[in-house]
């Protein structure tokens, strides 16, 4: 399995931040995830407690009609992901096969509808936005090659960033989640190359100044790498220090910034970026 390209990741993160508050955000979010894992199909939906599934984005090329004619018209209620959410599924990266095994014999979802889609393996990224409302990114493969544990772990390390971005895009007071344009539909915002370069420059400047002067230079380095989705072991390797040292720096920078999680770190950085942009 190829190692994700860090340049592609940074470019996708820049575009996702740039798209916050616009109709292009969900598509950019899916493209950000795609820099970390190879898949053939991506579908993004929102679920609410006791409510219908809400379509947000897809890039389906095979049997797309099943999504609109069957799944969104009621089949979603038999989806193991939907059933697991109604039973209290928490934020995470889950395998469809694992959920099916946990739930035991249920509605004939797998042998009828799911088989017709052509998907051979599926991962779902579950993000809780507000009470009783979730965002789900479904990643599918049409080949028999299953997703690996390392791929799931890679996506899991991205969860705090994805959560912070989504909460910024859909604030607490935002009740309804607007539908994103379907593929080939016009998008209201189409950033120019100059705009993308400007945003990339702003992102780099924000990373360089984030946490200063409260953090030491090393803590600031660790914070910047955490914001870019790096795990502890990757940070240790890049900086030439031990994983334990990275954990200590992480603990200290959390304390100095008055935060208690990586998700809070991302949210803090997004606020810093927005404040810097307005300055």
Automatic annotation (TrEMBL):
Gene3D superfamilies for this protein: Winged helix-like DNA-binding domain superfamily/Winged helix DNA-binding domain (1.10.10.10)
Pfam name, any one: GerE
DNA-binding listed as a keyword: yes
Range of residues in the leader sequence: none
Domain spans labelled HTH luxR-type: 208-273
InterPro entries assigned: Sig_transdc_resp-reg_C-effctor, Tscrpt_reg_LuxR_C, WH-like_DNA-bd_sf
Keywords: DNA-binding, Transcription, Transcription regulation
Protein name in UniProt: LuxR family transcriptional regulator
């Amino acid at each position: 399995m190829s190692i994700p390209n860090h340049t592609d990741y940074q470019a996708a993160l820049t575009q996702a931040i740039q798209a916050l508050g616009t109709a292009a955000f969900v598509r950019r979010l899916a493209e950000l995830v795609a820099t970390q894992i190879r898949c053939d199909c991506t579908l993004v939906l929102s679920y609410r407690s006791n409510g219908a599934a809400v379509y947000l984005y897809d890039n389906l090329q095979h049997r797309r009609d099943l999504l609109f004619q069957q799944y969104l018209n009621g089949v979603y209620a038999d989806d193991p992901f939907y059933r697991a959410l109604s039973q209290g599924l928490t934020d995470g990266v889950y395998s469809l096969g694992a959920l099916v095994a946990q739930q035991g014999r249920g509605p004939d979802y797998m042998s009828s509808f799911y088989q017709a889609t052509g998907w051979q393996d599926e991962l779902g990224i579950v993000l809780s936005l507000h009470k009783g409302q979730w965002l789900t990114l479904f990643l599918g493969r049409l080949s028999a090659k299953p997703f690996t544990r390392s791929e799931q772990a890679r996506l899991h390390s991205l969860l705090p960033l994805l959560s912070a971005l989504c909460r910024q895009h859909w604030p607490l007071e935002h009740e309804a989640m607007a539908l994103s344009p379907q593929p080939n539909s016009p998008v209201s915002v189409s950033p120019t190359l100059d705009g993308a370069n400007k945003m990339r420059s702003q992102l780099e400047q924000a990373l360089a100044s984030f946490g200063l002067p409260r953090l030491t230079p090393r803590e600031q380095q660790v914070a910047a790498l955490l914001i870019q989705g790096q795990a502890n072991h990757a940070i240790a390797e890049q900086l030439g220090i031990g994983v334990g040292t990275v954990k200590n720096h992480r603990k200290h920078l959390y304390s100095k910034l008055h935060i208690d999680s990586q998700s809070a770190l991302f949210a803090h950085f997004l606020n810093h970026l927005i404040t810097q942009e307005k300055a």
